[in-house]
Amino acid sequence: MAHSVKRYHGLMDWLTTVDHKKIGILYLLAGGLFFLIGGIEAILIRIQLMQPKLDFVSAETFNELITMHGTTMIFLAVMPIIFALMNAIIPLQIGARDVAFPFLNALGFWTFFFGGVLLNLSWVIGGAPDAGWTSYMPLASNTYSNTHGVDFYSIGLQIAGIGTLLGGINFLVTIINMRAPGMSFMRMPMFTWAVFITSALILFAFPAITVGLVLLTFDRLFGANFFEVANGGNAVLWEHIFWIFGHPEVYILIVPAFGIISEVISTFSRKRLFGYSSMVFATILIGFLGFMVWAHHMFTAGLGPVANALFSIATMLIAVPTGIKIFNWLFTLWGGQLTFNTSSLFAIGFIPTFVMGGVTGVMLASAPADFQYHDSYFVVAHFHYVIVGGLVLGLFSGLHYWWPKMFGRLLNETLGRLTFWTFFIGFHLTFFVQHFLGLMGMPRRVFTYLPNQGFDTLNLISSIGAFLMGVGTIIFLLNITITARKPKDAANDPWGDGRTLEWTIPSPAPEHNFTQIPLVRGLDAYWKEKVAGNKEMPASEPIGPIHMPSASIIPFLMSVGLFIAGFGFMFAKDEFASSFVGMLFNNYIVAIIGLLITFGGMFCRSVFDDHGWHIEPEDLEDKGVKA
Amino acid sequence: MSGHAHLDNKLPHQPELATLEGRNKVLGFWLFLGGESVLFGTLFATFLALRDQIADGKPGTELFQLSTVALATFLLLTSSLTSVFATQALHRHNVKSMVNWLIVTVVLGLGFLGLEIYEFFEYVHEGHKFSTSAFSSSFYTLVGFHGAHVAFGVVWITILIAQIFKKGLTVVTAPKIYVAGIYWHFIDVVWVFIFTVVYLMGKVG
Amino acid sequence: MVSEHSASDQSAKHRHRQEGPGKHIVAFIFSIVLTLIAFAAVMSSEVNKTFTYIILIVMAVLQVIIQLAYWMHMKDRGHLMPIIFLFGGALIAFTCIVMALYWVWW
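Structure tokens for the assembled complex are given below, as produced in the milestone run.
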């Protein structure tokens, strides 16, 4: 039975895999690739701004660079890397053999990937989007943005967004339905809680941007009038829809970082997390309030004093649960037996950095003051402090922490510390001075500035910092390359102080994760057993055959279908040199072929049952010996 | 998971919840509907913001034919009732009755779609085109999104009926039927808001 | 979690056994009546505009509650998560509508 199933090897294995651990690695690879692309765009921006009146890139290219930097980093780099850690760790942390929907998990990855590829192909076909990552109307309308750039934005993000939404639903169901026996909600590790809240935010925020992007696409491709003022449309409507999604999106990014930091700090302080239940409560509250504050991005749009006051107060309220979290981390560190390594350095570096981002956030929340800060470099500094200083430091911390569980090898500690110090110092050099640039009046999204306005030195410092961050990233890549050549020798619990279930199984985790699903007897289940003097988790079931889902190429094909359909719709009204190609596009034949592939994939998935296959107990023992 | 066809007479009362896969599917679908609520909420918001922006086109007070809408509403409400009968038959393991009620549901859904297409043709004929005004764009997008959901449901339930003939009622097929049932009710609930907000309030002006 | 589930399965089994089409037909009749009231309020020219709006909204909300409770089984046990997430979605949808009504035009 176990060997009768068709198993793929090499490239086909990666294209067809439904294993959450492999999908996690795919997310990491693809997200890492887009992170590098976004990083290069950032470096190019900083080179252009290094000195006044440079024309290293043209104004048009600069607009494309800032748009693609923001869009790529948020949707295609950091979110997928969050998904990489979610995939790699969540089923292990809750004692499950896989996610709830392995097939959808693969589909989610491939739609994200092809959406991202489509968006980035804009650099070589027809010009990249240039209306800013917020794509405000009427700047993004056909009148003012007449290349296909914004179409790449709307259709690429639409396809990638499908993947994110599927991922969100998948992790919600996984966490609700598949926790190991004994793991009540209030015994879930903090990272699992964070992912639970993040997934709920994804579920409620992404449909809004789906609609927003549909409206934008209809306006640009099919002559609709949602934002077309001449026919009764309203440009502010786009701002609202974008930020009703956009603000929760910020919390979708930062909440997982909160989870990672909680795990890392508690592990390397050898203490249970201070104020666990208040942490849970604070995370839920942040998630809820995240939906009620979107208009603070629009203070200067003219909503009036009542709306501005309302959103101002709601925004400042978020400082309360966030403050609870900061103090809980500090109290966890207080009196703990601290271990300083790369992972904990990133986590400890996160705390003051994120507090700075939070404080400027409260400053911006004050509507009258915001009229001064709005669209200046102060805002740029603020959101880079929360996203890079918060999320990216958190991701680095999490990657160093869970690397052995994902790949079976510990990253090099010396190179790791070098990564931390170059990246951390580079980050503060880049963005700390930008607060002052903003306060001195430098507007964001300008491609150059005049000399002798007091901007020159600070911009130079900022650019040097950006190079240093680049060096930090290169050292990290070097570390990965060197580590990949070492043998897979990481222990089950390489840090020695693991508290949660993922550290009870081999590194990397075997295909079926747990030979026997463990029985959870408290918060920090593994630590509890360690304290009681047990070497292993108690099992909640006898050893038996384990049912596994079959690999499938359908998710890949369905995503290819969407990719083709995206191009089909985008170029439906263009003129082509070849009349045959023109006929295919202009009659929507390409779009229809693409959609047929996707719906055909859905049809096959519905009609042909996946019986899966079993790992028999005797095979389990073989694997046990090898591990 | 597989090969349970011969155990038909031993199916549990709620076969859709008999396996972990089934429970995951049902819960996952509920969550998806939570997301769909936001999707339609945003579409309703767009419509409400733009419904008075008729530019050179006709307003809803002149346009809407309440008799067509009333008939469409009746068809969809009835189809929701027949789909709940199908779910009850599923719980009684009465495959024949279940399939019959599903077929009735599909037929009523097709009737609804026919009426909607007829209605759209009429409006376009009267000069209420997709690109006429912000009102017309948001009208066709909101009602069209709902119509697309109905069309998807009709195709989906048809495929499920074929699967029942082929595979019978098992712990694998039962969750699919159950989930299609909640999907159909959800579409009906959305329609309640559409006929209220778009047509009736549009007629009031 | 696991034991909870089987317990609720048991009790649900008990209730569903006696469940006939009766209450669903009653829910259907309610839906039809509420719909008719809404249509009638619009068609009669007697009622003023604001009052018509209120009638329409009340009828729609009542009908949706009835359909969610009976046809979508949300009154049955084991539906805590569906309720949380559907109402979460409805809350965000409501927020969007408030946005559209108050903060788009001024």
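Chain A touches chain C at residues 172, 176, 179, 181, 183-184, 200, 203-204, 208, 234, 236-237, 240-241, 244, 291-292, 295, 302-304, 307 (CB under 8 Å). The first strand of chain A starts at residue 546 and ends at 548. Further analysis is deferred to the final report.
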